[in-house]
Write a structure and sequence with these properties.
Helix content is 22%, strand content 26%. The chain is α/β, with parallel strands linked by helices. A six-stranded mixed β-sheet has the order 1-2-3-4-5-6, with helices on one face. It has a six-stranded mixed β-sheet with strand order 7-8-9-10-13-14. Strands 11-12 form a two-stranded antiparallel ribbon.
Length: 237
């Protein structure tokens, strides 16, 4: 399996291209701010053919390049219905008034083909399978994508802004809810095998085992502390 990832734009948001191997079809995850060029470079380098864009949530740092990327490759974008409005109205998602400047070069709006994700769905794209788990807390429509273990490749969780190495997503923006995020951590992340590789929306790669042992938020959830544990962080968007 091939996973090519790179941080993009002002928020350093991780964008991933996933394919069975070089020279095959691929899925693009979270093409955010200024990600279009990096996507095209990865497509050319690995001789890939994009077939879909899938989105962990609707914040502008994860979706800003959806329109140009989908348009360039004539592919659909998949997003949870609770976050779909953010593609056309990013200011509302950030608690800003319409008309306030927001990184003037951003292209907002929906691509021509938008498909909606649902909890428990299994997307079969580019010869791969992605299990969808609705994981609200950072936003109402946040999801994760999980790929099962393949031969000598461990299972992979694309966690978006639910779980980071050593931290979790912020919950102080519209639609955020710290208690809801902790519930999502317990329901989506804690049951996973320790060997599961976590590729998040920001920061470095980690594993469920490492986060179970060291992440203060995941440890609070495992200990049943819930909202009585560590306070919500305010990292990134």
């Amino acid at each position: 399996m091939l996973i090519a990832g790179f941080p993009a734009g002002a928020w350093g948001t991780n964008c991933y291209l996933v394919a069975p191997a070089a020279g095959e079809e691929c899925v693009i995850i979270d093409p955010g701010h200024q990600a279009a060029r990096g996507v095209e470079e990865a497509v050319a380098k690995h001789r890939l053919k994009p077939v879909a864009v899938i989105l962990t949530h609707g914040h502008i740092d994860h979706v800003a390049s959806v329109v140009p990327v989908c348009g360039a490759h004539h592919v659909p974008a998949w997003i949870h219905p609770d976050d779909r409005y953010m593609m056309s109205d990013p200011e509302k998602a950030l608690g800003r008034s319409i008309g306030q400047p927001l990184m003037g070069e951003l292209t907002v709006g929906e691509p021509d083909d938008v498909k909606e994700l649902s909890d428990g769905a299994r997307l079969k794209l580019a010869g791969l399978e992605f299990g969808v788990a609705h994981a609200p807390g950072h936003t109402k429509g946040s999801v994760t994508f999980r790929m099962p273990e393949l031969a000598d490749v461990p299972p992979v969780l694309f966690s978006g802004d639910l779980l980071f190495a050593g931290s979790v997503g912020r919950t102080d923006l519209p639609g955020g809810d710290h208690a809801e995020l902790l519930e999502s951590l317990g329901r989506v992340c804690l049951p996973l095998d320790d060997s599961t590789v976590v590729l998040s929306g920001h920061g470095s790669q980690t594993t469920i085992g490492r986060e179970r042992a060291t992440n203060p938020f995941l440890r609070d959830v495992a200990a049943g502390l819930g909202a009585a544990g560590h306070a919500a962080p305010r990292r990134g968007m």
